[in-house]
Write a structure and sequence with these properties.
heterodimer; A: seven-stranded antiparallel beta sheet; 13 helices; 19 strands; about 50% helix; B: alpha/beta; globular
Chain lengths: ~575, ~120
């Protein structure tokens, strides 16, 4: 406010002016009437006039006080609104500024007047600001901008500025300047958090790609190896290791690890007890836990490599926890961040499922390989046995010289084939179908022979609970078949009763002994067993060669055949 | 015509003895049967049979193809494999053997005899 009202005239001055006026009037009237009455009237008039003046004066004094109050109120408002008010010339010279404006710039108000505001505008905002000021003076309407100002000794700060050219006065504009540092900070924070989210989702994408790659690992061990390598790379971890819980759920066994120097370590032999905190904190929460945050980390030689934190995440499959993914970070390099832990969690859960799948896949592949081998083996056995059968028939056919022998020959052939079939029927099923239970085989076989040749003979089977590998079992079974058949056919001639004792046992751990003892008439002394050409003996002799066996015949009361052969390797 | 010598390599002795009987009836001289690859190689080098009849799956570390390979390294002789395993048809080691044929078990006698004659003439 430039127009300051003049000081209202005080009462004395008014009186002086009034007296002067009266004197002038007296001069004009020359000879005033001097009657008492007239004088009285004049005095009265003067008194009225005086009182009128006094009243007017009082009014003026009061108005002045009111104006003062208003002015003070206005000045308060002007100075203390939370915005800087500037009155600026077109060249930016500051004509007026309120206190808030001066505070914004951190300079005393007096020192600001007649300064160019441009010197307080930061380098980067100068072009913007001068364009803005030009716009204000040319357009005549309200213009808005955001510029960065400088404050002595402080960081540059952002302001919002609104200005309009003075009404009717083309040479000034009024500008309102508001500090928007906080808003800018919020914008900045938002941008940062958006950036953090972008980075996280990018890392998440990379992690999913890595997990997809992991699923292509050839073997279970390859999977673990690849998993520690990619975990270290994806999550900026200094050390990573995979541990699997053993079935007792008290011990865990290491798999592979990455050390702080980026070397892959095969730690498959290492076992450690599972910690209580694993069970009590990690398992119920199903979230990774930080086991320690600022403790000494040691290298593989036991030297302290620095302070670090250790975090573990569970390897879960659909059913439960199967192991741990542990990670160490050296504090001086980078602490383990919350985002790292989140990724570690997701990574470990996926890895747990992959491990379970890969293990099952390996088991299935192994089973399949075994079954393929077994199938091939069985195919071979079938073809081989069919060949043995054709050979037996062919050998038998060679022996037949007249038709009367044919029927008996068929019977013998049938029994031999039946003995072979029984060997296969007694395959010991709990193993890999390559061993037979001798006791039940002998029981089955002798029962058949008794029925065919001599149902009244008793058989005593003294066989330990032994199994025999298939390579020995078929020849052994055929030999036994010949020996028992021989005894039934010849030992009990004209006898209604008889006993055959069959034994099978292991001698000295590496020799099998098979005995067939009868209490029959005994071999005639004149018979030399090595000269006999019977097919039964041919078969026995050939099969003995096959199993590296030896035959011993003891003649006494009845006859004893003792066969010994070595326990074959791997049997 | 000179009697042809045959070596039988077979660890199933009943098959071997029957084979031996039949071949002898057809006028061949049959060397002692063996089921061991190492013995077969030794016998073959000593006796120089005109053809070798060999089972493939044998007891011991070496099989019939190993034995055949070792023998044909010393002298050229046709090999007639008689096997129950069809998968040996693609065995890489067979490439080292100049003249061979594979028959499935059990072989028909006529096919067996024709094969022996055919291989010896080659």
């Amino acid at each position: 406010m430039k127009k300051k009202s003049a000081t209202p005239p005080d009462a004395a001055e008014i009186r002086r002016q009034a007296e002067a006026k009266l004197t002038e009037r007296e001069k004009k009237e020359a000879t005033p009437p001097t009657t008492e009455a007239y004088t009285q009237r004049l005095v009265r008039e003067l008194q009225v006039y005086q009182s009128e003046l006094e009243m007017r004066n009082e009014e003026l004094v009061q108005s002045r006080a009111e104006a003062k109050t208003l002015l003070r109120q206005f000045a308060d408002l002007y100075d203390f609104v939370p915005a800087g008010y500037f009155t600026l010339a077109p060249d930016g010279v500051i004509h007026m500024v309120n206190l808030a404006g001066a505070n914004l710039l951190g300079i005393e108000r007096g020192a600001l007047i007649n300064q160019r505001i441009g010197v307080f505008v930061s380098e980067r905002s100068r072009t913007t600001f001068s364009a803005f000021l030009d716009d204000v003076f040319t357009s005549g309407s309200k213009e808005v901008s955001e510029v960065q100002l400088l404050k002595d000794g402080a960081a540059p700060f952002w302001v919002h500025i609104e200005a309009i050219r003075g009404d009717g006065q083309r040479e000034v504009c009024r500008a309102v300047v508001t500090d928007i540092t906080e808003r800018k900070q919020m914008e900045n924070d938002l941008r940062k958090s958006e950036e953090a989210q972008r980075v996280f989702s990018e890392r998440l994408t990379n992690m999913l790609k890595a997990i997809n790659d992991l699923s292509k690992s050839e073997t279970f061990d390859d999977l673990c190896r690849n998993a520690v390598v990619s975990a270290k790379r994806l999550m900026n971890l200094d050390r990573v290791g995979i541990w699997f819980f053993l079935p007792d759920h008290r011990t865990m066994q290491s798999s592979f690890g990455m050390d702080e120097n980026g070397n892959l370590r095969d730690e498959r032999g290492i076992r450690l007890p599972i910690m209580e905190r694993h069970i009590n904190e990690l398992v119920p929460s199903k979230k990774p836990i930080i086991l320690f945050d600022d403790e000494d980390l040691r290298d593989y030689q036991g030297n302290i490599v620095g302070k670090g934190s250790h975090v573990v995440a569970g390897l879960w499959n659909g059913e439960g926890i199967i192991g741990l993914l542990g990670a160490d970070n050296l504090i001086r390099k980078h602490p383990i961040l919350e985002s790292d832990i989140k990724l570690l969690d997701l990574y470990a859960v996926s890895l747990g499922h992959l491990c379970t799948l890969k293990r099952a896949e390996e088991q299935i592949r192994k089973d399949l390989r075994e079954k393929e081998v077994m199938l091939r083996e069985i195919h071979h056995r079938v073809k081989n046995n069919l060949n043995v059968i054709t050979s037996l028939l062919s050998l038998q056919a060679d022996q037949i010289t007249d038709k009367s022998q044919a029927l008996a020959a068929f019977e013998e052939s049938k029994n031999r084939i039946y003995a072979m079939a029984l060997v296969h029927e007694n395959l010991y099923k709990e193993q890999d179908y390559s061993r037979i239970n001798m006791k039940s085989f002998v029981e089955d076989m002798t029962q058949n022979l008794l029925r065919v040749y001599h149902p009244s003979v008793k058989i005593d089977i003294r066989i330990q609970d032994l199994t025999l590998d298939l390579n020995n079992a078929v020849p052994c079974g055929l030999i036994l078949n010949e020996l028992v058949t021989n005894a039934l056919k010849h030992a009990f001639k004209d006898k209604s009763q008889g006993l055959i004792t069959i034994g099978f046992r292991v001698l000295n751990g590496n020799i099998y002994e098979l005995t067939v003892q009868d209490n029959g008439i005994g071999l005639p002394k004149e018979i030399d067993i090595s000269k006999l050409k019977s097919l039964g003996l041919v078969i026995v002799n050939q099969l003995l060669i096959q199993i590296d066996g030896a035959l011993k015949i003891t003649r006494g009361k009845g006859t004893q055949f003792q066969i010994t052969f070595p326990v074959s390797e791997g049997a | 015509m000179k009697t042809k010598k045959i070596l039988i390599v077979e660890d199933e002795m009943l098959i071997a003895i029957d084979l031996k009987n039949r071949l002898e009836r057809h006028g061949y001289q049959v060397l002692p049967v063996t089921g061991l690859a190492a013995v077969a190689v030794e016998l073959a080098i000593q006796e120089r049979p005109d053809i070798i009849l060999a089972d493939i799956v044998l007891k011991g570390a070496q099989d019939g193809i190993d034995a055949a390979c070792a023998i044909v390294e010393k002298y050229t002789v046709p090999i007639l494999f008689i096997t129950g395993n069809a998968h040996f048809l693609n065995d890489e080691r067979l490439k080292k053997i100049p003249v061979y044929r594979i028959l499935g078990k059990p072989p028909l006698e006529s096919v067996l005899l024709d094969s022996i004659e055919g291989l010896i003439k080659k």
